[in-house]
Amino acid sequence: MDSTLEFQLLNDFQRDFPLCPAPFAELAARLGVGERAVLSSLEKLRREGKISRVGAVFAPKRIGASTLAAMAVPPDRLETVAQAVNRFPEVNHNYEREHRYNLWFVVTAGSAGRLQATLGAIEKAAGYPLLPLPLEEEFHIDLAFPLQGGGQKRPAAARPVVPAQPIEEAERRLVSVLQEGLPLFIRPFALIAERIGASESEVLARIGRWLEDGAIKRFGVVVRHHELGFSANAMVVHDIPDDRVGEIGRALAEEPGVTLCYRRPRVLPDWPYNLFCMIHGRERGEVQAAIADLRLRYGLDQFPHDVLFSLTRFKQTGARYV
From CA 287, how far away is CA 175, in angstroms rounded? Predict the structure, then answer.
């Protein structure tokens, strides 16, 4: 890391970002530097690709609709198909993984109907059927974690996923601006308010309510893990009996090395797994050791499983709901 200031911005403000008219001045006061230094450092980190934005991370399916999807693509067609999938603005993450189902992407849309239409259009453009794997139960979804390990995770609780409630037009306008990230200016919320025809206080209050009710998972610096050295990324999937998946999911979710943990549907006979965990690390061997340790400590050897390491990152952007 180039400086202590950059490290503090990346490590300490992935959540709990100050929601006030001059947030960057507040950050500067906490860090003992000038406001211009904070803004310049964040702009540099964004330019270098180490952060994607500063702003809101919306909870899946709380605003709009989304799903993880997988596709089995012949290896010699993978690059071409991945680019066809990437052309859809509703696709915000797209990775090659080690498996017969080798292309994995996330699709987000403003409504369930729009999501289904987009999935159909992606299948047509790609030329291969896709496997939709919508979120059914959340144990831990955050992707904010200390860059040097440690840190206290919040207790995990199973959260069944319920259909999103429609939002008002004023809220849609705010979401459309927030999904781009905060402007790196002295009064970012005032600029957002001007763009959507609201007051600065209304914008701050709405964001605060979304944070309180969980529609926004966190508000802060959104880091890009590959660029920060976390290039070993494995999705671990298990076939857990339905009466135990909640218990095991909550336990795994509280492990420091688990960055995501959730239940998704089996799609038999093609996909027998219902519990998904993501583990990020700097080296493949480190991640493999962490997986082996978790499986041993939680007695998971009795359950079928698979490990899908990421090979190629075709796309990684913020979700677009509007």
Answer: 35
